[in-house]
Amino acid sequence: MKISLNWLSDYVNLPSPAEELIDVLPMLGIEVEESEENHSSTLDHVVVGKVLEKSQHPEADRLSVCSVEVGEQTPAQIVCGATNFKLGDSVPVALPGAKLPGGFKIKKSKLRGVISEGMMCSAKELELGDDDAGLLILPGEPVIGQPITDVFAKSSVLELEITANRGDCLSHLGVAREVSAYYETPVKFPEIKTTATVSTEPNQSCLVESLQIKSANCPYYTLWSIKGIKIAPSPDWLVEKIESIGLRAINNVVDVTNFVLHETGQPLHAFDVSKISGSSIIVREANDGEKITTLDDQERSLTSQMLVIADHEKPLVVAGIMGSVDAEVDQDTTDIVLESAWFNPSSVRSTARSLGLHTDSSQRFSRDVDPKGVEYAAKRAIDLILNLAGGECINEFVSIGHPPRGSRTIEITPSFVEKRCGFDIPKENLIESWKRLGFEVEESTSLKVTVPSFRSEVDRPIDLVEEYLRIRGTADLQGSKFLTPSLERDNQPSYDLCDLAVDNLIGQGYQETCNYSLRSADEISKWFPKLTKIDLALGNPLTADHTHVRPSLLPGLIEVLAHNQHNLNNLSRVFETGRIFQPGPRGNAELISIAWVNAIGSEKKNWKDSQQSDFFSQKNSLERLLHAVGLSIPKGLWKSFDDEFPWQSGYAAQVGDVHKNKMEIALGTLSLNLSKSYNIKGPVLAVEILIDPVLLNKRRKPNSFTNFGTFPPAMKDLSLVVEKSEPAELVRKKVEEIAQSVLSNEISLDPVSIFDVFAGKGLPENKKSIACSLRMRAEDRTLGEKEVNQSFEKIILGIEQDTIYELRK
Amino acid sequence: MENQNLQVLVADAETALKSVSTKSQWEQIKATFLGPNGSLTQFAKGIGSVPKEERPAFGKSLNQAKGKVETFFKSKLTHLEDLEDIKSLGECIDPTLPASPTFSGGLHPLTKTKRRIISIFRKIGFTVAEASEVETEWFCFDALNTPDDHPARDEQDTLFFPSSSEWANVSRKKKESYLLRTHTSSVQIRTLLKEKPPLRIIAPGRCFRRDTVDATHSANFHQTEGLFVDQNVTVKDLKGVLDYFLRELFGGKIETRLRPSFFPFTEPSFEVDLKVPDLGKLSNKWIEIMGCGMVDPEVLGLVGVDSDEWTGFAFGLGIERVTMLLHGIDDIRHFYQNDQRFLSQFSSQV
User: Fold this and answer.
1) DSSP assignment, residue A72?
2) Contact at CB, B125 and A485, closer than 8 angstroms
């Protein structure tokens, strides 16, 4: 919101310089945005100069050389191209060192061979106006040499950001009240001359015959009749004020309503009586599909959720937001009715939002205008209209309903305030602070604070604490030396998990990255053709590349690889931890994911060959990670992906199911076509872990110690010939099961491990051999050779009986 | 006589071993001295021809000589084995050659800032709380005292899921809409409903706004929420904790101030302004760093905490913003582009 300091000074004495408010207002909770209008405070080295001499430039027809008095001992010599000035004129002069608003720096220089010690400026060059036709000739007799900011200080405009709770500050009088509270100087309210008596329905002299309120969203409506006015341009003082805050002057009546809106915060609407059909005004909900062409020349379709002011034919105004072209006050208007009302803030807010139509009026109604100010604003406007446009106000106005809110009294004790603030506060200070804000305070056993109607949001004791602190000032508040008594709480396990994973993967040589959670429909179709995309779609996406939440971290990681490869950066191993989103049997689920990728074709060339990563090195990487974070691989057999995008069939596999086991892992080479489509050289190995956070909720108990045998194990190897398609893990497990079942109770078996896999020479084409190593041990002795051999025989016998595996001799 | 022969034998063995360079040579030579037909063995067989009274002396010098020869062979063997071990190491290295492989892992700058923030708060007894990124209107707005028609709930600013959307592991209050959380403040609500005060939590996480990506906006970004609820917590405690935090993060020479502001879920509410003596272009200027305030009694009431007994404060700050301030980064998109030339500048874990 724009506030003109010059205008503001009509209602309250401002500090000197008035720009002090730029520092004061923020500490009261009103932010001052950096805006161009604040330029005057930055126009250093621009001063008032007086032209003493002017002569033709010897080398250039269009330039003159001037001698300008700038408040220093000798006048400055300035080369100038403008022609609109004469000797003795006062003009702004930018001296060397000045920086003009556009960023142009002034220094002493030569122009066509003549020295120029500065620059005389136009209004536009200083952003003091739009005029760039010539120099800005300063009126009156400003002091030569004085900073230009002193001359223009009063016209400064501040761009204020008013927080959602302070609708009362959306006007010059509202800001004046805050200034008044801070500086303890009274607010000067404009005096009202208009007097009129209330009537609850239009009588004979009223300019409309009927007024009906048909909606609860308009609890209070007043209508004033003025006849015989003459529409004309507004006088200079009004145009200047209206334009100073960035509005366009239109005519005396419209300008007055705008002026009063920005003066008091109460929006008003003037209707041309001759354009009201049937001489009736009806406040009602619109009909669904009803059309109105608003003053911005847009035809808008209304719904029954929207409030309108209508005549008996058509809507004339979207209530509290914008009028229609049909009832506009124009050159020929002579009689008007003026509306001043209170509309339900949320009704106006939702209508403005659904129409996408935010106006000065809707902004104020939707932040709750002061119901007690409704009448005042109307009378103020009528005073001005009669003054500027002539005419006569009918001595009776129609008022339907009542102000929905008045003042209210809050009971509070000083100790309540002290307990929240943390320091002692004399009762008098509290009372004084609230009184400065215009609240009334009555002392009894407690304090009874009466808050006026314009402060809609102050209605609880805690709100009074805030008001006290604002007026007391918060800049100098000292922090306490707080104690931190111990609490029984640990980090959320999901945080610790990712934290440990990050450290582990960094240790494994992976760079952490951070990718967008929102992805495009195309990307999801490309990567996960089987996924029901619709489940992950946003209802109101902003851009086409951010329409869905991500079902996987992998696409982001591949983009990182592609970006870095494209830029010839040495980065081929990256990871991310974060949340991903997947459809599931009982609705969507938000899951934790840890994923890492390794572009083996784009690793930096090295002078020394090192072993290339493959599925099994990634499997090791996975095991290292899981060990570090204290999780184990889900039970079950790794299953090769077969035609399952984005994985390369036969070179990637999966274990677990996040919806059943709460954890799922996919590992291997990504589809070669996919990595090719990103222009990535060579295959990309990837690991993706998905975890449902509920998996982590179990509190871990310390595991208990198991005694281990001290006698050495006896080792035996055996080699089995099996079908090539037989998963090695099945063979290993079978051997382990058989061995465990045939061994006597005294002998225990360590987990069986595979140490060799062979296919080729000496074996049939469809066969492979798998060699396993068995370690047997007894708790109480070193096993003898005979015992070991007997056991081994039993194992071999068992395998021959129970399996179709052949023993390799 | 015998002794002289023995000495010759010992000297011969020493000499013969000098030229031995392989284990097989060593085996051969060993056989010529100590084998069944070896010269030392032969010599020992001569004991039969030695007079009975000289036999002890003969035996003694024989054993001494044998011991010496065996020692020679043993140490030669050790030497040969050492040589073999060294040979297995390959050629001597050039220590100036670069590492192989060359990749090294690293931390993302946002994680680094997040960890710094958490470690500062852990020192004063805050622990990490997390909640889902998918949220519902009730947890993200209603429970935080944000009225139904508050602008923040506008479809303009918040990303909603369609009304048919169901989330199995994100609980709802009633049948309200799901959305992507716009702030980490929703973690306050989820935690307060699950755990009871006294409570001190720090909640970092990803948030979403319906924003077009540019140098200062990002469709997703990260925040850290903090919440302190206890008996007799005051505005002075809020200031004390945040001053401590900002001193730890930006150094001891900073100035801070609370500036009145407005958030629906705190009352009174403040922005924290910070002045840092050495922060590039922003040195010695008031910069807005975080929002905070005393938890509104309404919010405590909505989660079933008695606001007469418990008071508290909450705060929130942007992790991207803090990281950009700390390192002088001028474009938020760097964090999501993941260019190695950017990441490598901040990737050390300290």
Assistant:
1) S
2) yes
A707, two tokens: 């005694």
Of B130, B168, B243, the CB nearest to A492: B130
DSSP-assigned letter for residue A171? S
Nearest by CB: B160 against A463, A540, A570: A540
**Which stretch, A510-519, B12-21, B155-164, has highest mean pLDDT?**
A510-519
Q: How far apart are the first and last CA of chain B?
A: 79
ipTM score here? 0.89
The CATH number given to B109-134+179-343 is 3.30.930.10
B3 confidence band (pLDDT: 50, 70, 90): low
Query: Which residue from B239, B226, B244 is spatially nearest to B118, judged by alpha carbons?
Result: B226
Q: Which residues of A touch B235 (CB under 8 A)?
A: 420-422, 469, 477
Q: Quote the pLDDT of residue B61.
A: 85
Cβ of A281: how many Cβ atoms within 10 Å?
Answer: 26
Mapped onto helix, strand or coil, the DSSP state of residue A668 is strand
Ordered by where they begin, the domains of chain A are 2-160 (2.40.50.140), 197-401 (3.50.40.10), 408-472 (3.30.56.10), 493-696 (3.30.930.10), 714-807 (3.30.70.380)
Segment B249-303, tens digit of pLDDT: 999 999 999 999 999 999 999 999 999 999 988 999 999 999 999 999 999 999 9
Specify which of A16-25, A482-491, A554-563, A779-788 reaches the highest per-range mean pLDDT.
A554-563
On whether the CB atoms of residues B192 and B307 are closer than 8 A, the answer is no
Question: What's the Cα-to-Cα distance from A535 to each of A459, A521, A522, A551, B318, rounded to whole Å?
Answer: 44, 11, 15, 10, 30
State the pLDDT at residue B46. 80
The whole-number pLDDT of residue A162 equals 93
Highest-confidence segment of A22-36, A129-143, A458-472: A458-472
- Residues whose CB is less than 8 angstroms from the CB of residue A368 and which lie 6 or more positions away in sequence, other chains included: A167, A345, A456, A457
- % helix, strand, coil for chain B, step of 5: 45, 20, 35
- What average pLDDT does chain A have? 91
- Is residue B101 reached through a cis peptide bond, with omega within 30 degrees of 0 on the bond before it? yes
- Does residue A752 surpass a pLDDT of 60? yes
How many residue pairs from chains A and B have C-beta atoms closer than 8 A?
272
End-to-end CA distance of chain A: 92
With a cut of 80, say whether residue B150 has pLDDT above it.
no
Are A733 and A799 contacting, i.e. CB atoms less than 8 angstroms apart?
Answer: no
A512·B100 Cβ contact <8 A: no
Q: Predicted confidence band at A154 (pLDDT cuts at 50, 70, 90)?
A: very low
Q: Among residues A74, A75, A117, A77, which one has the least CA distance to residue A94?
A: A117
Ordered by start, the domain boundaries in chain B are 2-88, 109-134+179-343
Cis upstream peptide for A646 (omega within 30°): yes
- What pLDDT is attached to residue B1? 41
**Option in A28, A469, A490 nearest B127 (CB):** A490
Residue A602 has pLDDT above 80, yes or no: no
**What residues of chain B, 83 to 102, have a C-beta less than 8 Å from chain A?**
97-98, 100-102
pLDDT, greater one: A126 or A292: A292
Angle between helices A374-389 and A252-264 (to 10 degrees): 150
| Rounded-to-integer distance, Cα A419 and Cα B24, Å | 94
The radius of gyration of chain B from alpha carbons, rounded to an integer in Å, stands at: 40
The encoded tokens of residue A209 equal: 């015959």
Q: What is the pLDDT of residue A767?
A: 94
How far B115 CA lies from chain A's nearest CA (Å)?
A: 9
Report how far residue B174's alpha carbon sits from residue B171's, in angstroms, rounded to the nearest whole number: 9
d(CA A730, CA A30): 72
